[in-house]
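Team,

Forwarding the record for the chain on the shared tracking sheet. I've put the sequence and predicted structure together so nobody has to dig through attachments.
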Amino acid sequence: MATMNQQKTVENWVEQLVRPEIRQINAYHVQPAQNMIKLDAMENPYVWPDQMQQAWLARIADLAFNRYPDPNVSLIREPLMKLLSLPEDQTLVFGNGSDELIQILMMAMSGTQRGVMSVAPTFVMYDMIARFVGMPYHSVELNQDFTLDTDAFIQAMNRHQPAIVFIAYPNNPTGNAFSRTQVEQIIQQAPGLVVVDEAYNAFAEDSFIEDIARYSNLIVMRTFSKVGLAGFRLGYMAGHKTWMTEFDKIRLPYNINSVSQQGVAFALEHYPTLMEQAEVIKQQRSVLVAALSGLDDCEIYPSQANFITVRLKTKSADQVFLGLKQDGILIKNLSPTGGLLTNCLRITLGSEQENKSLLAAFKKHINAV
């Protein structure tokens, strides 16, 4: 005679044991991009110069893969703190990309009615990870032109009393940076921690790293993914040691693998090369913005990131996205998100030749009858 457990299907078990809020969401989707011009994920299109690549291969030739990585990430910590000019009362916590850092922050501060807040639209992982850890998530919609209504945001903070506020600076997926005054007002009036996410700082005009000393509730988060090191998956956050000590307790042991530690340490030794590539990308941004602005059907939004957000006035973003995909060019279709992103596309800056190919194909589909 079958027991009760034997009669249960896998679906029965999942429904019984997996939290409802997890069952209701979809996993983060990454588009397949094999054999395509990949302009969908804000990656740096440039590889390291040959001489630098050879030096890197020589560096890892004797790496002890049979040993655990350095748990303190010492190879990166000291040179990065020096590069950022962090004072003695501040330090760093490293994560497997920014995503793990966001999770660490929320796990440390989760609790009954302790929520998370940001703007909408913004980086989707703020909302998703809040659901993972069971924290209420609140957002304030941006204006139609993606600018921020500071008064509305502060009123919402006062109402919801979030434990953590995330401000992507510049914002993703819109590309614009809110004004320094607006961000400072949020920091000054927030009831909890404010995390300024500077994932795109290499392409932006301003930073809040130096402001950590002024504000006891400010943390700045960054990643190496946008400056050509996406494969190493290394993010970091800077803040007062008192905060970082608590967050480091939640960081899993050995979370940064040996290859990533060696790779980022090596890249820091060649930091001018990374910044030269970032400057080229910024120049290409200006070129592509000018070209797209000349198309009647395109509304281009200001960008301080390595991507451009475009709203189509009459053409269907879905159709243009599919047309480009058929031409072997992959960008991000934001339109399915709805709301303010309806009929919007996000284009990552590629190499000069990739941008030219994108522009030619884009014009073809925009002008198609």
